[in-house]
Batch of 4 targets.
Target 1
Amino acid sequence: MDRRSVLKSMVMAGAAAMGAPNPLAGSTKQGQGGHGDHDFSVEGLGMLYDATLCIGCKVCMVACRESNGLELPPDTDLWYDPPDLSSEAITIIKLYEGEEGGDFSFVKRQCMHCVDPACVAACPFTAMYKAEDGVVSWDPERCVGCRYCEIGCPFNVPKFEWESRNPRIVKCQLCSHRLAEGGIPACVEECPRDAILFGTREELLEEARRRIATEPDRYHPRIYGEHEAGGTQVLYISRAGIDPGDLGLPALDDTPLPENVRNVQGILYKGMIAPLALYAALGFTIAKNRKAAREDAEEAGTVGYTPYDDDGSPPRENDR
Amino acid sequence: MSSHQDERLAAVGGPIWTPVFKVLAIVAISGVIVSLWRFWVGIGPASALTDAYPWGSWKILNVIVLTALGSGGYALALLVYVLNKGMYHPLVRTAILTSAVGYTTGVIALVVDIGRPWNMVNMARPWEWNLHSVLLEIAVCVSAYMIFLWLEMGEPIIEGWAQAKDTRLRAVARKIGPYVHKYFPWVIATAVLLPTLHQSSLGSLFLLAGPRLHPLWQTPFIPLLFLLSCYAMGYAAVVIATYLSAYVWDTDPHHRMVAKLSKVMAWVLVVFLVIRWADVLNRLSVAEIFGSGTYTWLFLIETMFLAVPGLALLSMKVRGDPGSSFRMAMIIVVGGGLYRLNAALIGFMPGDGFSYFPSVLELTITFGFVAMGIMGYLYFVKRFPILGERLPAGRTAEPGANV
C-alpha cells in the first residue's frame, strides 16, 4: 500500500475494509444469476466524488485507462480529451461552466453503480448483473449485444464497441479486478487531490453528510445520488452555489427506473397467473367453438363446411 | 375450424421469376451483402447507430413496426377461433402467411442487429434468463411464435396429405391426423397467447426508459396501446394483401369479409384513440400536450392518421367501397407505424446534442429484409393454396355493399 492509499484510509476513517479483499463478501444475498431476487436495500460499494477538491488534472482518466487496458483511439495525438464517455473512456472529467464568469466546477463521470440498476433489469440474459459487492458488472459470455442496457440507463453509461465484430459493452466496473486483489479503484488511488473516495454507500453517505455539516459555507447541501433513481452507489457533492445536479447529471426522481416496469409487467405477469388463465380460457373457448361448428355442419349435412356468417345465413354469391 | 375444401382456395400459379420478383431479389441480395459486411466490420460502419441512439431502423422498423403488420395472423385467429367469427376463415391463410414472412424477416433482422448473436445459445439455458427482462420475454415469445405460426398450418397440411396421391402421406395423415385435430385448439390457443404477450411487451420495453421517453408516449398504458395498434395494423395488412392480390391475380377479393373486417378495424381504432387521449389528458396539462413543439405535431399527425380511417370506416358507405377501404387500410399502416416509431424512437430523448437518422447502408438492410418478406409472400401464394380461387374470366368483382 503506498502513501496515497494510506492517506485515503485515514480520510475514510471507519472504512476498515478498505484494503481487504471483498469487504462486503458474505454480507449480501446478491448472486450473479436470478438477480431479480436482489435485496435492493443492501448497500454496495461505490465512490464519493467531491467536486470542491477536483482540479481537473485527469490523472484519474489515465489511471483508469491503464488499469482497464483501454487503448487510445488510433488517431490520437499527444492530447486525448474525449468529449463524452465511450467504449475507450469509461471515466472522464468534464468542465461545468456556470452562466456568470468564475462560476465553474469539474465533474467526473463514470458508471453510477445504481442501487437498483435499469441496465440490470433490462438485460435478458443476466450479462449485466449486480455482483455480491454491489458492483454493476458485465459478463461477455452472456451478452448478446442487444444494447437494451443503453436504452435503460438514464446516465448514458454503458457503451458499445461499434467498430468491433466481437463487440463488448464497456463501462466502469469499479476496478473489480483490483478489488479482487485487495486493491481499490485506480482513479481513487491515483487522484492527487483525494477528490474521489472509495467505500460502501453507507460510509460514503455518512462522509458526505459530515463534510456538508462541518463546512456548510463550502458545500452545497445536496448529495447527488442519495435519492436519484432510487439511489446510486456513486455520490456527488459540490461547492456552495453549484447544485451537484447541475453538473450535467440528469434530473431524476426517486423512483428506480425498473420500478416503472415492475408496476406494469409485475402486475400483468404476477405468478404467471394471468397469462395461464388467458391460455386456459383461449384453449377451452377454441375447443368449444370448433365442436359447435362441427355439430352444426353435421346437422346441415355439410361435413367439413360451415356457413359461417353472423346471422347464420349461407354465404352469398358475391362472397366468392 | 373446419376443412378448407369448400372455400375454394387455390395456388395462383404462374412463373416465380417475374420482373417485379427480380427487382425484389436485387434489393434483398443487396441487403444480405451489406448484412454480411456488417458482421465483418461491426455495426458502426454499417449504420448511423450511436451509444445515444443504440436502437435504429433494424429493431424499430424491421421488428417493432413490421411485426405489427405481421400480426394479421394473430388478430384474425382471435376473430375466427376465439370470437367464433368463422366467416373470416378464407382470409386466415393470407393472414398467417403475412405473419410468417413478417416475423421471419424481423427475426433475421434482429440477428443482424445484435452485436453478439452467437450468445443467443443462452436462449436454451433458462437458468441464465432474467425473468424480469421485458426483452427476454419478447425474445422467447417471438421465437416460439414463429414455430407456432408454422404449426398453425398443420391442420390444413394434414388435410392436404389425407388426399394426397402418395399412400405413405395418406397413412401419416391418418395416423397423426386425429391427434393434430384433438390438440389443434391448444396450438391455436398458444399462437394467440404468445403474440398477446409479446406485442404488448414491445410497448413495455420503453417503460424502462422512464423520463427519457417523451411523456406524450411514456405511459403505463403503453402495453395496451401497442396491443391495440397491432390489431389495427394486422387487419390493415390483411386487407392490403387481399386486395393487392385480387388486383394483380384476379383472385377472390372477399369484398364482404373485408368490409366487415374494416368495421372491426374501425372499432379497434376508436378504442385505441379513446384510451390514448384519455390517458394523455389525464396525465398531462394542456400546455404539455400542445406546447411540446415537434412532439405535439407528431402526436397530432399520428392521431389524425388513425382517427380519419377509424371514423371513416364506421361509415357503411366507405367500407363498402373497395377503393376507399384499401386507402383507409394504407393510412392505418402509416398511422400505426408512426405511433410505434414515435414511442420507440422519435420520442426517445437520450439528451441534448444527439440525433439519429438511419444511414443508406442501414436502410439497405432494412429494405432488403422487407423485400425478402414480399418475395416469400409471392412465392407461397403462387405455389400453395393461400388465396381464393381466381375469378372466372370476364367476371369482375362486385363491390361488397350491403354490409
Target 2
Amino acid sequence: MRTKSSIGFWLAAACQVLIVLTYVGIKEWTMRSGRDVVLATRPVDPRDVFRGDYVTLAYEVSRLDRCWIGVVGEDVYVPLRSQGEKWVAGYPARTYAEAAGQGEVVMVGKVNNRTTDQCNVIYGIESYYVPQGTGAAIERVRGQLHVRVAVDGFGNAVIKELIMP
Amino acid sequence: MTDDPFVARLAAEVTEWRREGVVDAPTTRRIRQRYGIQHQADEGEDAGGQGRAVTVIGTLGSILVGLGVILFVASNWEAIGRPGKLALLLAFLVAFSGVAFLLRGHGHPRIGSALVFCSQLVFGANIFLIGQIYHVRSSEPTFLLIWAVGMIPMAYVARSRLTAFVSILALLGWYAMLLSDWGALSGPHPLVAPSFLAFGLALVGFGGVFAAFQRTEPFAVVTRVVGLATAFFVVFLLTFVEVWRSAGHAASTGQPPVTAFVVTAVLVLVAAVVANLASALWSRSGSLAWIEMIGSVCLVAITLVMVLVAPFGSPEPYALLFHVVALGAVIWAVLLGVATGRESLVNLSLVLFGLVVMARYFDFFGTLSNKSIGFIGAGVLLLVGGFVLERSRRFLLAQSHSLEVSNAN
C-alpha cells in the first residue's frame, strides 16, 4: 500500500517535470527550427510584479490595414515578406495555407481590436523581459527598436533578441 | 490494525460518521481513543489545536519559501544562462517534492503536506519563469491552465486540499483570461454572466460527485465552496443596473463573438448540467440532492433567458429581478445548508446577502427616504420566513421525538 502511494506521488511529481520540459521543448523547437524575421517595434514600459521588469512591444505588423476578416478573439494567419532589413505584413487569412501563398513566412495571431477595415493582432510576443531598472533605457529608444523573432512551420513565434539602434 | 472485528468495523464507521457530519471532530477523537483505534489524519482533518497550528505555520512557511525561490531566480536572472536557469528551476521542483515526500513518510505528515503545497508553488514559478525566459506575453492564459492541470494529480495523490483549492482558483483565473483574450469581457458579452455562473455551478456539481467517492471526498467541500462562491458572485454582479446597462450597450454596438467563445460557453453550460445531474444521482442525500440540482439549473436557466431573450427594454427591471433571484438563492442555500448540515452553504449565502445589502445601502445613501420601504419589506419577509422555519423545525423535532417514544414502547 505504502509502495503504491509512493509510486503515485513520484508519478505526479514526474508528470510536473514532464509538463515543464514539454513546454521548454516546444519553445526551443520553435527557436531552433524557426525562420528568423526582424520586426520593427514601438515599446511602452509597464511592470509585471511577479517577473521583474518587461517592456510591452507593439509591432508594425500588429496593426493591419485592409483587414476584413476576423472578429475580436479570432485566430488569423498573417503572411510576412521581407522588405530590406525588416519584414512587413500582407493581408491576413483564416487558414495557414491561404496565407502561405502570399508571403515567405506566416505568423499566427489573435485579433484583439478592430474597426471596419483595420485590426490589431497580438502574436504572443508582446512582452520582452529585461533586468530590473533597465526598461527605461529601452523606452528612450522607442520607435527605433527591432526584434529578431523565430517563426516555426505552424506560425508560432518566439523572441530571439532585441536589436537596439 | 486491530484483530477485533467489532473495533475494525467501528473504525470504518467512525470515519464515515465524521465524513457525513454525524459526529464532530472531538467526539471522533474520543471514540478512537476509547477503543485504541489508530488513525492517520488526512491533510486538513481536524486533529486538535496543535495540529491546526502546525498546518497553518507550515503553510505560511511554504508560501514564504516559494516566494523566496521565485525571488532568488529573479534576482540572479542575468548571471545565469538559459540552461542554468532551467536546471535550477527543475532542481528546486524536484528537491521540494522529495523533501515533502520524505517528511510525509517519516512521521511529519503536516509539515510534509505544507511542503507539498510549497512544491506546487515552485511548480507554478517554474511555468511562469520559463514563460519569462522565452518572452511569452504576461497575459497568456495557458500558463494558468498548465499550472492548474499539473497540480491536480499531486493534489489527488497527496490528498492536499490546499493544492486542490489553488488548482481550482487557477482554473477559474485561466477561464477569465481566456474570455478576456477572446474579447468577451470588454463590453462584456451577454453570454459571459451565464457562462461564469455555469462554471461555478459545474464546480458545485463536481464537488457533489467527489463527495460520493471515498478517494475524492476530501476535495468535495473545497470544490463546492469555490464553485458556489463564483456563482453567487455572478448573481451579486447581476444585481447592478450598471452591469446590465453596459451589457446592453455592448450587445447593441459590439461585434459578434468569436466562435470559440460560444462553443466553450455552451460546453461549460452542458458540463454544469451533467455534473449536477451526476451529483444528484450519486448523492446520499436523496431528494435534497435533486432539489440542489434543480435549483442550480434554474439559476442558470433564468440568467440565460434574461441575457439571450432580453425581454425588458431598460436595465432596471433586470437588476430588480436579480435582487429577487439573489434573495431566492440565499433562502434556497440556507434551507439546503441546514437540511444537509453543510455549514459552508449557509455561510456563503449570508455573505451574498450581506454584499447585496451593503451595495444597495451605498447606492441609495443619498435618496434613502423613498427606498427605505424596500429594505423594511425585505426584512419583514425574512423575519416571517425565519418564524415559519423555526415553527416547522419545532414541529419536526416533536414529530421525531414522539416517533422515537412509540418505537421504544
Target 3
Amino acid sequence: MEAKKQPSDLVERMQGGDLDAFEEFFNTFKRPVYATALAITRDPFLAEEVLQDCFVKAYRVRERLDPTRSPLPWLQRVTINLCYSRVSRKRSRAEPLTSLITNLVIDLSQRPDQVVESREVLDVLQRGIDALPPKQQTAVILYYLHGYSLAEAAEVADCNVGTMKSRLHYALKALRVRLPVERRIPVRLSVKVVPVRQDR
Amino acid sequence: MSCGRVRRELLDIVRFGELGPSSASHLEHLSGCRACRDEVGFDRALVAQLRRALAARVDPPVPPSRAWYAILREAQRPEPRVSVWTWSTTLVARLRTATAMAGTGLALVLALNMEVIPLTAPSPGTPAAESAEEAALLQVPRLPTVRTSLAVLADIANAGGIDTVSRPDPEQTLMQAGTRLAPRPRVAEASEPGDDSPGPQLRLLVRAIRTPEHDPADASASAREATVGAADLVNLEPGQPS
C-alpha cells in the first residue's frame, strides 16, 4: 500500500500535536480514502463529507494510532463504515452528477454501435456494483479499484484471505449474471502456453 | 481432467494470479479446450469492464482543496460532549426496552403461576352432582385458576374481610383479594391435557363478577350474587366438600 513509502514518524509527529504533520498525513492518504468513499457513495459531496469525518476522527484518536503500522487499512475501514452508515440513511439517492457527465462524454474513437454497447455494459455493471451486498462491494473496490493484494484487502475488510477470495468470486458471479447474453463482451482470447519454470 | 474442475481453478489463476507448478496442466488444458478458453476470456473481459466501471465511479479522483480547511477547522474544535438531551433519550430508549422485557417476563411468570395449562386429570373423589348444571360442570375440564381465585374470594367475603357494600364491583373485590393473598399453592388437579377452552366455570365466574350495570342501589345484590356464585363453585370442586 502507499503508506509503506511514507516516513514512519508521521504519526508520531501528529501525536505530538504537529499540524503540519497532520496536513502531510492528509495529503498522503486523501486520494485512496476519497476514492473509496466516492466508489461506494457515487456522490462527490457525500464522499467529501466522509473524507472530512474520517480525517477528523483520525486526528482525534491519533494517540491510539500505532506508529509502527500503516494507518491506511484503519482509514479505509473507517471510510467504509462511514460510507455505509450514510448510504443506508439516504437509500433513494438521486442520479449522481458524475454519472451524468460520464453518460454525456462519448469516446469518438469508437464506432457508434461500439459506444452504445460499451455504455450499456458499463451501466449494467454500475447497477450491478450498486446492488452488491456491502461486503462484496467493498471487496471489489479494494481489489479491483485500489489494486490491493488479497492480503491487504483482507486486512482492510477485517477478514481472512479465503473469505476475501470468496467475496470476490460471488461478486463476479453476481455481476456476470446481470449481463444479458446478447450484451456479453466479445471474447478475444489468444492463449500462449508458456511452460512454467520449475526451479526446483 | 473435467472442464468444470479445471475452470474453477483456472478462474482462480486468472483472477488472483496464483500461478504455480501445478498450473501447467491447467494451461495445457486451456490450450486444447475452446469452451474453457471462452469462459476464461469472458471472465477476463468482465474484470476489465469492471475496472473501467469502478474507475468511472471515482471521478474526480482527488478531493477538492477546501476539504483540508474544513478538516483542520473541525479537528481543532473541542470534541463535542454528549448532550443531556442525547443522554436522556438514550436512557429513555433503554428503559423502554427494559420495561418491555420485564413485562414479557412478568406475563410469562403469571401465565405459569396461573396454570393456564392443565397439569393432571380430575381426581377420582369427585362429589356427586346435585343438579344438571352441576353435573355438566363436573364433566367439563376444570380451570384451577378460576376455582382458586373464587375460593379465595369466597373465603374472604364469608369471613367479612371485605366490605362488599362499599365496594360493589366484584372485579375490584377480586383484585383486592388478590393483593391480600399469600403465595398460593399450586393446584395439581385439572382438566384433560391439551384442553384449555374456558368451561362453564369461567362463564359462571364472568356471570358472577360482571353485573349488567353497576348501579349503587344494586351493588349489594351484585356482590351477593358474586359471593354466592363463587361459593357454589367452590362447593363443586373435587376434594373440597362444602
Target 4
Amino acid sequence: MKMSHFIAKRLFYSVFVLLGLSIVIFTMSRIFPGDPARMALGTLAPQWAVDKLREQLHLNDPIHIQYFIWLTNALRGDLGMSLVTKRPVLTDIKTFFPATFELVIFSIILSISISIVIGVTAGRHANSLFDNFVRIASYLGVAMPTFVWAIIAMFIFAYSWNILPALGRLNMGTIPPPRITGMITIDSLLTGNFRAFFDVLKHMIIPGSALAIGRIAQDTRIMRASIVENLRKDYIAAATSYGIPERLVMFKYLMKPSLIPVVSIMGLEISSSMAGSFIIEFIFNWPGFGRYGANAMLNKDLNAIIGSVMIVGVFFALINILVDVIIAYLDPRIRMAFRSE
Amino acid sequence: MEKLGINKKSIQKNWYKFSRNPLSIIGLTVVVAIIFITLFADFIAPYPEHAGWYTDFKNAKLPPSFNHPFGTDTMGRDVLSRVMFGFRYSLMMAFVVLIIVVPIGTFLGLIAGYYNNTWLDTMIMRLTDIFVAIPSLVLAMMISALLKPSLFNAMIAVTLLWWPWYSRLVYGISSSLRNEYFIQSAEMIGASPLHILFREILPNTLAPIFTKMTLDVAWVILIGSSLSFIGLGAQPPTPDLGTMVSDGYKYMPEIWWVSMFPSLAIVLTILGFNLLGDGIRDMLAAEVY
C-alpha cells in the first residue's frame, strides 16, 4: 500500500465518521426538549413570530427530512444563520477561526518545546533531584484544569506582577494589521507591523500557557519515559562505544525514536486544546472560534452549535491524518511497511 | 470473594505493592479525606447553612481570617463551608456517571469483542468511533446546552458520551481472548454465550476496568467542573466547585480567595484520584499481564 492510498483510505473513512457524527449531533439538537425557535426569540415574542421562525427552520418537518435539508445545505457550504449574530454560521466561523488557530498553534509550540527540553533532561538524568522535581510538578500539571491555571496565571502575572496583559488580543492603542489571513501574528509580519506582532504574542502567553499546561505535564512524562527506555537500547551503546560524540548520539540516535510517542498523541492534544479554547477564550475574552462556540451553547443558538461542533470534528479528523503522516516520516519502520506492501 | 482470588494473603501482597510508592499513599489519604468531608459536610462545615441561598452582606468579601479560613464571597457566605459541600457535588457527579457508564460500556465492549467481525461488532464499534471523533468536553458542552444547563443534565451529558471509552477498552481484551484455548474449550463443552461473556471473559477485564474507573473519577470531575465553570453545569446557588470559581474570577484582583480556594480544591481532588489510580494500576499490573 502506498502512502497516498493510505491517506485516501483514511480520508474516506473520516467522511463516514463525520457523517455519523452529524447524524448524532443533529438528532440530539432536535429531540431534546425545548423549542429552538422560542429559545431564539425569547419568552416575550408573540406566537405568530415563533410559528414563522419554526417554518423557516423547517422545524415542522419530520426529523429525517430536516436532516437531509441540513446536510444538502451544509455540503454547499451553508450551515444556516446564527440566531444570535444574525449572520451565516460559516461566515462567523471563518471570521473567528484564525484567532483560535493562532492560539492553538502557539500553545502547541509552547508545549512541545518545553516538554522536549524538560523531558530529555529528566530522562537523561533519571532519578536525580531534577527528575523527581519534574515528576511531582507533572503530577500537579496533569491535575490542573485549564481554567484553574488560567485564573492562577492571570492572578500572578497580570494582576500581582502586572507584566503581562490579561484580556483580549491587542492593546487598545495598537493598530491592528489589515486582515489577510486573520492571524494577527502572520498579518503583522507580512505588513511589517512589529508592534502589533509583539503585542499579540504578549497577549497569547497566558491563554496559550493555560491551554498548554496539561499537555506540557503529560508530554514531559511520555518524553522522559521514552528517553529512559531508548537509552537502554543496544544501538545507543553501540554508537557510544564507536566513539561517536555524545551530542551526535543524542540528536541523531536518541531523539528521533523518542519523539514518536509524543507525536502520536499530538493529534489528540491539538483537539483537546481546541476543546480547551472553548473555555479559555471565554475567560480571556479572546475573539475566537472557541468563544463563539461557547456563546452559541450558552444562548442555545442551534445552527451555530451544530456548525461549530462539526467544524471541530472536521478539524480533528484532518489533524489525525496529518499526525499519521508525520509519524510515518519519523519512523522508518512504518515507512518501510508502506513500501514493501 | 474466594472465586475472584481475594483472600487475606493476596490483600497483604497487594497492599505491600501499593504502599511501596509514597505517592500512592498520598493519593489514598487525599481521597479518603475528601470522601470523609463529602459524607460529613453537614457536621464539620463551620457554616452548613451557607451552602444554598444565604446572604449576609454585612460579612461579604471578608479576607481569610480565623472565623472564615477561606474568607467569604460576595454574598457573605463562608467559602470553606461551600468548598466542603462542593466536594460532595463533584464526587456525586463522578460516581453517578461511572455507575451508569461502566456496566453499559463494558457490556457493549464484551459483546462486540466476542462477536468479532459480525454486524454486532461493526455496529457497536463504529458507533464508538463517532463518539471519540470529537473532544469529550465539546460534546459534553453541546449536550448539556441542548438540554437545559443544570447539574443533573450535565451528568446526563457526560454519561451519554463516556461509555465508548469502556467499550473500546473491553473490546480490545475480549476480542483477543476469544481465540484463547480456555474460551474455545468452554464453547466446545457447550457453555452458553452468557456464561462465556460473564464468567470467562469478564473476570479478565476487571483489573483494567477498575484502574480506568479510578482515573476516570478525576476526568469526570474535571469535565464536570469545566461545564459548571462556563455555566453549562450546576447553576448557582449550588456550591459546585466550578461554579464557585466562575463566580469569583470576575472579582479577581481584589477578592482572590473566592475563586482561588475552590480552584485549589479541584486540583487537590483530581490529583488525589490520579495518584490513587496510578497506584492501583501499578498494584494490579503484574497480576494481569
